[in-house]
Hints:
This protein is of the alpha/beta class. The protein has one domain (5-202): Aldolase class I (TIM Barrel, Alpha-Beta Barrel), CATH 3.20.20.70. It has helices at residues 19-28, 43-60, 70-73, 88-95, 109-118, 142-151, 164-173, 182-185, 190-202, and strands spanning 5-10, 33-37, 64-67, 78-81, 100-106, 122-126, 156-159, 177-180. The radius of gyration is 16 Å and the shape is globular.
Amino acid sequence: MLGRFYVILDDSYITPEDVKDLTFKVLRGGADVLQLRSKRWDRGTIVSVADTVYPISKDFGIPFIINDYVDIAVNYDGVHVGAGDVPYEEARRVLGENRIVGVSCYGSLPMALRMQDAGADYVAFSSPYPSPTKPDKDITSMDLIREAARVLHIPFYVIGGIDETRARELVRAGAYGVAVVSAVLRASDPEEAARRIRDAIYSSV
């Protein structure tokens, strides 16, 4: 089973030059799952950064997932896909059964149930809070989080504008875990920020 604390290395907040140091800090802080998300870098840069992060994640025993790029993800632990990306079924066909495939379901519980039935390893919902990385994102209600906890048997993460306090609220409402970006990557001490969020999650289960 995947861990509950999912950290996204987003190219809006990191550079290829600082990713190695930041990866160590995030993992020492207790991240359970690590994703590389790039909307700006070229493919060569994505691969170079992934090749830097992957051996570190392996040393920590943490899965490393690529956002969007299924053909790149075949060299790592898995892929995360959303609307407009390769469909789940194609991602699974390319990656096979032994790698992780996660799917963004935004605010749709029916979609999450379909992805669960199709074999997704986890799903992700938008959070009830505004997100600094995606200000136009959908807002998901706490009621949906509570219902998801009742009907989903695969891990589901909530993402968007989540800090230590909100992580605690979401897990207490039934979220399996949370995914964070800016609360860790923009922190003056990313390792301590990660540790505090992890503690908030696991103390609330």
